[in-house]
Each structure stands twice: as C-alpha cells, then as structure tokens.
Write a structure and sequence with these properties.
single chain, EreA/ChaN-like  fold, 2 domains, 15 helices, 14% strand, globular
Length: 383
C-alpha cells in the first residue's frame, strides 16, 4: 500500500511538472513578446510613460492605494506632463476633499482621511502659480471617508437650519454607515423644500448635492440586494463630476490635458471583471468623441505591504491573478513597465478555445490597459 501511494505521488508530480512544462511551451510566444516590451521604470520606463503622456490628451493611471510608490512615480512624471500641457488631475476624491487638500492652510484644516496627502496636493498645485493659482485637482467622487465634515460646513453656512442642526447632532461623535438612511432623509428634505438658504459651492460643485449623492450610495451599501446599485450609482457620480469639471475648465482652456488618478478597477478600457467599473471606458469613448486620445496604465504589487486609514494589508497580488503572476515572473527590474499593446495581436490570433488560463487573463489586461507596471515590492504609506 505504501509503495502504491509512493508511486501515485510520483506519478502526480510527474504529470504536474509535465503539464507545467507543456503550459510554459504553449505560452512561449506570449512570454517572448512581453520580454521584448518591458522597461525599467527608473530609466527607459519613465521615458516611455512620458512620451505616451505627451502624445495623449488624457493619461489614466489605475493606481494602487496606500503605498509610497505611486506618489513617487507621479512626482517624477508630473513636471514633464505639466510642460506638455497637462493642467488638471481628476481624482478619486470628493470635491470637498480636493478643495481642502489644495487650498485650506494646514493650520486650519481638520484631520483628513484621504487617498491623497496634503503634500501631494501641494506638489500638483505648485506649478499652477502658487497658493493663489487656479485649481488643479478635480474632485470626482463621493465623500467616502468623512461625510460628517460636509454636514459641518453646510451647517456653519446655515446656522438657523433645523434639519442641518439635526444632522450635525447625529454625527457629532463621528459617522457610521448605519446613519446614512436617516441622514439621507434629512438631506432630501433640505433639497425638496429648498430649506438651505446658502448652499456652498466647492470645487465647482454643490456641497449639498455631493452630500446627498454620498448618502444615497452609503444607504444602498447597507443592503446586500442593493450593493450593485450602490456601485453603479457611484460610477455614475464619477462620470457626472468628471463631465462637470471638464466642461467648466475647458471653456477657458480647451487645449488643456487631463490626468485621471483612480484605483485600478475604475480605469479599465472596457468593463472590469464585475461589469461595473466603467469610468475609464467612458473617458476613452469621450476622448474619441472629442477627437482626442487616451493612454491608460495600471499598476500592481508583487510583494510588500500597503496601508490606509489605519489598516495595513499584504500587497502581493500574484496569487490573485495568473496573468499578474506571469508578469511578475518576467519583470527584470524593481519596477517594470510592460507595454501591453504589442501583445494584443498575438493573443487575439489564438482561438478562444485554445487559449491557456494565462492567455485568457492576459487578453483581459491587454484589452483593458495600454501598459502595466509591476512593483516587485511596495512600501506602506506613512499616515
């Protein structure tokens, strides 16, 4: 029995190794094409990205969250992008948070929980003419982190408003998602009765409108049956805010270029795996309608840690996707840029039924993004 078990184990190992070798041979043309189009981000990779940004009107960065590497990348790219005509950054921030980060003095700003730091916002703004220069950041999202601060500012502008006083009282000790339905009902009452005598315009948008949209999404997130509705509503809000900013800004500066910085799931050309996140696809089609071009690049981690809002997590994504694991195995540099566009013809020449699991996932990534950055090791962002 023991001999049989040993033989069975040997046979299994043989078959697995044989299958792995056969798989590697099958994927060899793809591997070779990827190896021919990889760059060192600290050298020719930075040149590659800068050149592509110069040729495009919209540069979309599907980033990681909570690490130091993306801010470092943008510090290296943005000065050149500014010289090439980029004037705005559409960001995964609420309009209120974008304004706070860009314009509120540090000694007057409340503690913000944000995907951005104050230093990053100041860096992007510094090229626009100093503190008095025009806004660079476009807030294109809900206020996911601290909606109670929007309530605070609205209440300060309307001290006699009883509805806002009640909302302020509910959130006096902080905000929790379970509060959203009651807060939403109160916010809608303010809207329908026009009970807010002084709405606040922040980052070219209505503070009350963004608060109401935030609470709608947060309320829908509470119920499993409406979570998809919440995701779709948030994605629509991103598009609405992007268009609002674009139309207002381009009326006075029609040749200005725009960078978008959002989490990677939002900026696929096409749909993400859930079929929900379509902002990147929307911008790609919008650019085409404007006779302009888009270049979009993703980033992923192959090791290290990330940290945000007091939480730290493993940033190694190799186990999440066989295509990312392959890219990581081929990456020759600490930060490697792969140009995915030459891979498209190779992959699409393979009949769908003949594609390996790796090739199937690579089709997804190569069709979604023009390039992808593999970071061998990411480091957690300091609070």
């Amino acid at each position: 029995m023991c001999r049989l078990s040993a033989y069975a184990c040997f046979l299994l190992i043989f078959l697995v190794r044989g299958g792995t070798a056969q798989q590697a041979k099958h994927d060899e043309p793809v591997r070779e094409r990827l190896a021919q189009h990889e760059y060192d981000l600290s050298g020719d990779g930075k040149v590659f990205l800068s050149d592509e940004a110069r040729r495009a009107s919209f540069f979309l960065l599907g980033e990681l969250h909570g690490e130091n590497e993306i801010p470092a990348l943008l510090r290296g790219l943005w000065p050149g992008m500014w010289r090439d005509g980029y004037r705005y950054v559409a960001a995964e921030l609420s309009p209120w948070a974008a304004n706070q980060l860009e314009f509120t003095p540090t000694d007057r700003q409340v503690k913000l929980v944000s995907l951005w730091t104050k230093q990053e916002a100041h860096f992007f703004h510094s090229l626009s003419g100093g503190p008095a220069g025009p806004a660079v950041l476009w807030g294109c999202d809900m206020e996911e982190m601290q909606p109670q601060l929007l309530i605070r500012d609205l209440a300060a502008a309307n001290p006699a408003n009883t509805g806002l006083a009640r909302m302020l009282d509910i959130t006096r000790s902080g905000y929790k998602r379970e509060m959203a339905p009651e807060l939403l009902q109160l916010a809608r009452g303010l809207t329908t009765t026009r009970d807010v005598s002084s709405d606040v315009s922040v980052n070219d948008t209505s503070l009350l409108g963004n608060l109401e949209a935030t609470l709608e999404i947060e309320s829908a997130r509470l119920n499993a049956d409406t979570k998809r509705e919440a995701q779709l509503r948030r994605e629509s809000l991103m598009k609405e805010l992007f268009l609002l900013h674009y139309q207002k800004s381009m009326s006075s500066n029609p040749e200005a270029k725009v960078m978008l910085r959002f989490g990677r799931n939002h900026l696929h050309r096409g749909y993400d795996g859930r079929g929900i996140s379509t902002l990147g696809n929307f911008v790609a089609e919008f650019a085409l309608a404007q006779h302009k071009t888009v270049f979009n690049v993703a980033a992923f981690g192959a090791g290290g840690k990330a940290s945000l809002a007091g939480e730290t997590w493993d940033a190694d994504e190799r186990g999440d996707d066989v295509a990312l694991a392959l890219l990581a195995s081929l990456a020759r540099y600490p930060a490697t840029v792969f140009d995915l566009r030459p891979l498209r013809q190779t992959l699409h020449s393979i009949p769908d039924e003949n594609r390996s699991p790796v090739e199937q996932r690579l089709v997804y990534w190569a069709d979604s993004y023009d390039a992808i950055i593999c970071y061998r090791n990411v480091t957690p962002l300091n609070p």
